[in-house]
Amino acid sequence: MRPSISRLASSKLIRRLEAVDTAAICDAFKATGSKAVKVMSSFMTLRTSHLAVSGRMMIGVARTVQLSEQQDFLAVLQGLDDSEEGEVLCVCTKNSTKAVAGGLFLTEAERKGLRGILVDGAVRDIATMKDNGIHCYSTSVNPYSGTVSHLGQLQVPIICGGVEISPGDIVIGDVDGVIVSDVDSLESIIETAENIVAKEEAIMTAIKNGKGLHSLTNYTEHVANTKKGIESCLTFK
Question: Where are the beta strands (DSSP E) in the chain?
Fold first, then answer.
């Protein structure tokens, strides 16, 4: 079931997620044994690169767009028109090579309060995106735009960045990449993610103060056990 924007906004989940990062979230899913996180292809690249410097994350509810014809972005205009505050517009272009979104679209998305735009395909106007305040990811860039003649499908499951996204999924992105999960799963691992961040910050401080990385983990014991065929797990001390 699609979570309401108000549920996310009124909860502490978004603020807690903003205090970690995609790597810690993935590690938390791994540590708890949950497989409820999907990692997009590394071809999904952050085009609003100035946001990477600030460390800001993209966290929002997926609004999905499925093009009906290659190279035609009328469906993106439809999705943008219907979109609501707190959402991430996620677009499947059917392997289009021409741009289906650009600077004007991103500026309108920011005006409406969206968290970001994901395009499995091309965007353009990268130079103008440096002044935009929301994230834009795409798998390619092309200055030549497509047509606007074919209606698409909205709020249906799509493939974007190599993973399936359904309307209402939670999309999280930073400079490391983009991940997708659901509210309940994220709520179940957020404390673990916070603990991972705290431990890594402590280890980073210790390394900067002269301690070796391996002395801060059970590395020696883990290697010895592995050589003996004993089940073991590499952990922080």
Answer: 38-39, 45-46, 58-66, 87-92, 116-123, 135-141, 153-154, 158-160, 163-165, 170-174, 177-181
Domain boundary among 181, 207, 228: 181
Cα angle, residue 117 at apex, residues 130 and 49 outer, rounded to 5°: 30
Alpha helix (H) residue ranges in 116-213: 183-208
- What is the model's pLDDT at position 7? 54
For every residue of 186-236, DSSP letters joined together read HHHHHHHHHHHHHHHHHHHHHHHTT--GGGGBTHHHHHHHHHHT------B
What region, left, alpha or beta, does residue 128 occupy, with left being phi > 0 and alpha being psi -120 to 50 degrees?
alpha
CB 158 within 8 A of CB 66: yes
pLDDT in tens, 4-25: 444 554 468 888 999 999 999 9
Q: Are residues 204 and 111 in the same domain?
A: no
Domain count, the chain: 2
Whether 58 and 144 map to the same domain: the answer is: yes
Is the pLDDT at 1 greater than 50? The verdict is no
**Those residues with Cβ within 8 angstroms of residue 127's Cβ, 6 or more apart along the chain or in another chain:** none
Backbone angles phi, psi at 64, to 5 degrees: -100, 145
Task: Verify that 80 and 174 share a domain, yes or no.
Answer: yes
